[in-house]
Amino acid sequence: MAGFLRRRAVRPASTAAAAVPETKAARGSHWIVLLVSAALEAVWALALHEAHGFSVLAPSLVFLVAFPLSMAGLGYAMRGIAISVAYAVWTGLGAAITVSAAMLLGSEAPSVLKLLFLAGIIGCVIGLKFVGDGGRPADPGGDPGDPAAPRPIG
């Protein structure tokens, strides 16, 4: 317990590492886990609806299993995929799958506009996959106007 309460050393803002954003290298496993996590998001959302305030046992149990697995998968995916892309893909696909499943199961009526907007979400998610973080390495110089940015010696 004492280790938990012990304060961690804080690096001064003047170090170069503080000014450099993290560069991530996404592998195929990050994307696969992210897609599975998005599907699990739809599973827990639908289970939560069917649980009726946790008063129905089976969907409540499905929710209690799918929710942490979805979050753990998102967390793993963020190790290799930028948060801006990973979270947008996770929520976008999760929402698209949830709405699609609700329409297929008959709890929501399909419409041309819903289908059009779902296609838009999926198109945007595909675009984010290909754009990612642009593959640009982090700028080691930071912001030149930042007083904490590293300065050349000499």
Automatic annotation (TrEMBL):
Pfam families: Multi_Drug_Res. It is found in: Cell membrane. Its main location: membrane. Keywords: Cell membrane, Membrane, Transmembrane, Transmembrane helix, Transport. It is a multi-pass membrane protein. The chain crosses the membrane at residues 31-48, 54-78, 85-106, 112-131. InterPro entries: EmrE-like (IPR037185), Small_drug/metabolite_transptr (IPR000390), Small_multidrug_res (IPR045324). Belongs to the drug/metabolite transporter (DMT) superfamily. Small multidrug resistance (SMR) (TC 2.A.7.1) family. This is Multidrug efflux SMR transporter. It comes from Leucobacter allii.
